[in-house]
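Feature request, filed as a ticket because there's no other form

It would be nice if the structure record came with a short human-readable summary line next to the tokens. Right now we just get the raw output. Example of a typical job, pasted below so the devs can see what we mean:
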Amino acid sequence: MGVSGQFETVDKGPPHYIWVSHGRVEGHLATSYSPDAAFSPDSSTLAVVNEDKIVLMNLAEGSVRKVLHPHLEDLIDLAIQSANFVSPTRLVLFGNGLVKAKDKGLPARTPELAFQWDIQDDTRFGRLDAIGQGGGFTPPRYFPEPGYLSIYKSSSFDFWNPNSGRGARVTLPDLKQQPNLYALSPDGHWLLLAQVATSATPDPVVVRLSEHKFVDSLVGHHGTVLGIAFSRDSRRVVTACEDGKVRVWSEGDWKLLQTLEGHQGPVHWAEFSPDDSLVASAGEDKTVRIWSTADGKLEQTLSESQEPLLTVAFSSDGRYVAASGEKTVLVWQRQSQ
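Raw output as currently delivered:
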């Protein structure tokens, strides 16, 4: 499953380590938000969605460890959108399917479904939740820190913990249009909203959750913001933009700290490393770029992909980077020079 390493270093002095290609798997990760929870908590496994199956990649060996076959009673044609680890042995899956027809009529497609899957026994764990019945909801998303699933409808965000079942609703009276992109800070203090329908500006707006109101915005984007991610300590934010630039912002005063330039075309996603020392970005130019947050310099360009890349994430131990297009997931491993 491994492939030969290709990399291009652009800094004058070599970095302390390099990223080398460590394998590829047919399928995809979450393609509309961060896929960092596709990595298991111990960074040993990567969960890749391949139509109605989940491929578990053994990261140490760069090979397939196991293939899961999720299924639900009375459903056919189950389409899985994403798989996120919520414990070392369980995934939460988002998807939908067709209800088995009891007569000759056309089968009905279900609303979005969320359910947990045990990777050891290849069986469903716990209950099946139908999300967004009645329509008008955004697709569900998972934020591994602080561990909440979320959906949006009509000025309100519903957050809940898939393990405890507890949750809360946050209503923003001033939010009149749907945000197609949003990010929750790991400390739970902030919500950033972008791609707000009918908005006159592409700049994300900042919500202070304790007050349920807008308090600021990230000013300076020259195109649609395609990705937003907080650092693990919630003190910085990175945005990926249609204008080809990656920007790093400070939390609290929301000032622009760095503008990272180098992608040729739109950047779809960017993410901080677990220790917040690096940013990885993925773009339309089929590359992943690794940047230093200390000085904003480009450390390495990873160019093995044959398709535009939509998302990118680090494993929790910082040793692996995974990037996903619509059909293929690529993995790189960090190695000392």
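Something like this underneath would help us a lot:
Residues 185 and 234 are 6 Å apart (CA to CA).
Residues 17-100+109-336 form a domain with the Methylamine Dehydrogenase; Chain H fold (CATH 2.130.10.10).
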